[in-house]
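Reopening: structure tokens for the adenosine-5'-triphosphate complex, inputs below.
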Amino acid sequence: MARLQLNKLEKVYGGGFKAVHGIDLDVADGEFMVLVGPSGCAKSTTLRMIAGLEEVTGGEIRIGERIVNALPPGKREIAMVFQNYALYPHMKVRSNLAFGLKLAHVPKAQIAAAVDEVARILEIEPLLDRLPKQLSGGQAQRVALGRALIKKPEVFLFDEPLSNLDAKLRASMRVRITQLHKRLKAEGMSSTVVYVTHDQTEAMTMGDRICVMKDGHIMQVATPKELYDRPANLFVAGFIGSPEMNVIDGQIAGSNFHLGDQSVALDGRLLGRLNQAPDRAAFGIRPQHLKLTSAPGGLSARLRSVEFMGHEVYLHAQLNGHDITTVAGSAEYDAMNRADDRITLSPDLGQAHIFDRDSGANVSLPLAG
Ligand SMILES: Nc1ncnc2c1ncn2[C@@H]1O[C@H](COP(=O)(O)OP(=O)(O)OP(=O)(O)O)[C@@H](O)[C@H]1O
Ligand SMILES: [Mg+2]
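Re-run output (same inputs, fresh job):
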């Protein structure tokens, strides 16, 4: 059993700076939880408190049934993998893997079996007799993973473990770690994970659930699909999804959303979800849900630039003083009438949101319960 719970967890650093503002988070046994957010939002501080590397100044941390606030790192049944793999440079891979067990006086034969098992799982058997300097970045990161895995911890903690790798290797390590997690889970081994990243793609592709943080507060905790489809506020809407969601200021009047001299006729798909009509409103629509159209009644925008991405193009345009982006198929773009720089866009209202510009809250989510 390795459920992890943070209750009103708080961190005030020595100088008096409050980095973590009483956060609550419940990570289920075997769950892969991603902490994501911009630089400085306190992802590492939170993770380091869970690991026991940073003192807790308020609230509690539970691993399984135990409150671990006062336990030293070695007694918490956790293993941590950092961005810099911190392998011992003078030890071969085999000894790097075995080191923790050796310190714990585990019998030799048992260590050898554990090293073999971990090496097999991570496909690093051919590397066992090499020194760290003879490894590529991806190989070194796999050895670092192996050192965590061999401890059979209750909870795995990762702090940006892939950010030193190039894009291609990152993508393949993402898949590898996710598969490893599935496998540990299927084999009934402890597999609760808290994984820190600032990369929304990593968060979206790896997490069972994602905890989005900002300035030491939690903005939303939900599955990747839920965050994408139903962002709780403007911050989450802007942080999750690529290219970023378009957010256009305006006013709601009756069943219309007015933006400058144009308006969008809202229908039941959006009005039916609206639980408030804020004074200062913002219309949110993802680039993928804003389609080029030739039908009347669309929004007219001025095309500024085009990015060719291969099978699709990103069209950057101006609408009522806002920079907006839409995604179109390459063929669709080729077939477009480009006599002038106007484009006409039709938002999919079933996928659109209304935000309160002042509080940032999404006011177009059906109320829970
Ligand atoms: N030892 C410290 N003393 C005082 N303030 C600190 C200390 N360590 C971190 N902070 C501050 O706490 C806040 C959170 O830092 P933290 O390293 O947890 O952020 P992060 O989300 O991990 O950022 P990044 O994505 O850049 O790694 C920042 O404002 C940081 O400046
Ligand atoms: Mg950090």
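The radius of gyration is 25 Å. Residues 4-234 form a domain with the Rossmann fold fold (CATH 3.40.50.300). Marking as resolved unless the reporter disagrees.
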